[in-house]
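User: Can you recover a sequence for this backbone? Please restate the input before giving your answer.

Assistant: Of course. Working from this structure:
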């Protein structure tokens, strides 16, 4: 990218990040906020689809007792990470300076799979879930609660991160509250949902075959699959992989 275009892109990103953070602060004074994302359609929750998903090959990635199969990241932006431990069947990533993360050490599919898990922000103000995952030969990250605590989206698409592409959304995540999350990767599409305890909301729905997917440099040590938090303590449980 020419230097002048790069500078303009960086300026635009800085402005957008600032506006996102200011919006999050302002909205804290307005009371409960509905999710600014698409509610799941009847087809997304149909018994037929649920039966098909149950027929897939299921792998439990977190046993609720130990960090077996997981590596605590300690390089680059993870070098001053917080403590990672298991307590009451929860994988806890304590607040780091700046990031705390874990990487799955086993094999992981590239397409035709779904990941299901529960996550919560235990403490802090930024993203409590930065889940990096493969899409064919590329990788990207699902962000929940970034930039002031509300932002959702995929980092990155065509060079634009979760704060500046068509997946950008916002949810008023409550600290200590559990959210059920689903991510589905097929040959053509990338989809994600968040269940807030009352209903499931679709937050990502894109076709990826003609898009350039990538991770931000902070996540370079995480592929093929893992979880991270930023200046925030997060918790994860019931992490399951379903292969179709």
């Amino acid at each position: 990218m020419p230097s002048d275009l790069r500078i303009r892109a960086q300026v635009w990103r800085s402005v957008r990040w600032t506006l996102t953070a200011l919006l999050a602060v302002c909205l804290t004074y307005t009371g409960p906020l509905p999710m600014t994302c698409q509610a799941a359609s009847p087809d997304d929750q149909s018994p037929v689809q649920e039966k098909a998903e149950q027929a897939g090959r299921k792998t439990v990635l977190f046993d609720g007792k130990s960090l077996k199969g997981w590596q605590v990241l300690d390089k680059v932006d993870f070098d001053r990470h917080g403590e990672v431990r298991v307590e009451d069947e929860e994988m806890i990533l304590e607040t780091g300076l700046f990031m705390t993360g874990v990487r799955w050490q086993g094999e992981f599919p590239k397409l035709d799979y779904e990941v299901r898990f529960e996550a919560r922000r235990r403490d802090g103000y930024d993203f409590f879930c930065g889940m990096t995952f493969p899409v064919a030969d590329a990788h990207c990250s699902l962000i929940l609660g970034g930039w002031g605590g509300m932002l959702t989206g995929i980092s990155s698409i065509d060079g634009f991160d979760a704060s500046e592409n068509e997946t950008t959304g916002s949810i008023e995540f409550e600290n200590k509250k559990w959210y059920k999350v689903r991510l589905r990767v097929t040959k053509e599409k990338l989809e994600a949902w968040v269940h807030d305890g009352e209903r499931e909301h679709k937050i990502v729905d894109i076709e990826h075959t003609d898009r350039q997917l990538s991770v931000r440099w902070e996540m370079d040590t995480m592929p093929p699959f893992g979880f991270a938090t930023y200046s925030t303590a997060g918790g994860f449980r019931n992490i399951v992989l379903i292969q179709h």
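That completes the design. The helical segments are 3-27, 47-54.
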